[in-house]
Design brief:
4-stranded mixed sheet, 3 helices
Length: 134
């Protein structure tokens, strides 16, 4: 079975875990400790929230300041426009920020939310019945 693990350096693991929980992730305590939390999106997609000290053990490069520089865009699909809006609304209530307005591409609606460290998540709903057939 193939799985995706996204490792993110965060300044406050507990605070970040609470935000990600509000976005719809669940914590897997088996792979969590005080220096990192394993957050589960699905049976194949995981986000590891790691202290800067723990994250630094996996790389020789400096950790990017994602509050002022973009290191990557991470995208998660929602099953409906209501689910998309609920995910982002819950994340905003937990302290996340939305840097721009919803974008509507006709067949896809997309909202952006940033966590406390500036990691950027694109949450989208795609209705393939509205995809252009050109």
């Amino acid at each position: 079975m193939k799985q995706v693990f996204i490792n993110l350096p965060v300044k406050d693991v507990e605070k970040s875990m609470n935000l990600y929980s509000q976005l719809g992730f669940t914590n897997n305590p088996q792979f969590s400790d005080e220096s990192g939390k394993c957050m589960v999106w699905s049976e194949h997609i995981f986000v590891m929230l790691l202290t800067h000290q723990k994250f630094a053990t996996f790389t020789t490069k400096p950790i990017a300041d994602t509050k002022s520089n973009l290191a990557g865009l991470f995208s998660l699909s929602a099953g409906s426009l209501d689910e998309l809006n609920n995910i982002v609304t819950n994340g905003l209530k937990a302290g996340g920020t939305e840097p721009n307005e919803i974008r509507d591409y006709g067949f896809m609606q997309q909202r952006t939310i940033e966590d406390f460290d500036g990691h950027t998540w694109e949450i989208f709903f795609m209705d393939m019945s509205k995809f252009p057939n050109e």
